[in-house]
Specification:
This protein has 2 helices and 11 strands. It is mostly beta strands and about 180 residues long. It has a single domain, classed as Porin (Beta Barrel), CATH 2.40.160.
Length: about 180
């Protein structure tokens, strides 16, 4: 139960950060010319299969991202009977290097994950009564194309998922819009 409260607290903190206006930043209406808001769909990445994301520039070279992913698969590929259902929320802070439309993106964050498995346990952690929740770490090292005035954005990068004991090398590609 404590893990659920921790996850809700992390999500609430992310939304507070996203909606907050930092004092001196409010005067910089367009943050060095960049569109401040981005929405995108990411294939693979921290959402494992996909995620829907909102990213907000809070400083000219720092953004905060909140995402959502929900999917299920037959567990046959793991040689387990039943169905796996995963819901996760990538929450990240990104540092953007460069001042043009093409930038290096370096990010770190958490990914609260809820797992439901009918039948057995799974490698992600212990499953009690077919349900589990856990928090993974995630990171991004990638390329981000985002025109300053907004419009179509493209991202591609190395997006590993990890715990204190496990490391899953992963990648993601994104397409969306900045405004």
């Amino acid at each position: 139960m404590r893990c659920v409260y921790t996850v809700y607290t992390l999500i609430l903190m992310a939304f507070v950060i996203l909606s907050a206006e930092a004092g001196p930043l409010a005067a910089q209406e367009n943050h060095a010319g960049y569109a401040r808001n981005t929405v995108f769909v990411e294939g693979l990445g921290p959402g494992f299969l996909y995620s829907l994301n909102y990213d907000r520039l809070i400083m000219p070279d720092i953004s905060v991202r909140v995402g959502f992913s929900s999917w299920s698969l037959p567990a046959l590929f793991l040689l387990i009977n039943g169905e796996i259902r995963i819901v996760d929320f990538p929450i990240m802070v990104n540092y953007l290097v460069g001042h043009d439309a093409s930038r290096l993106e370096l990010g770190i964050g958490l990914m609260p994950t809820f797992l439901s498995l009918h039948g057995e346990e799974i490698f992600l952690g212990s499953v009690v009564d077919g349900k589990a929740s856990m928090v993974f770490g995630t990171a991004t090292v990638g390329f981000r194309y985002q025109p300053k005035e907004g419009g179509l954005i493209f991202r591609i990068g190395f997006t590993p998922v990890f715990t204190f004991k496990k490391f899953l090398p992963w990648a993601g590609v994104s397409l969306g819009a900045a405004f």
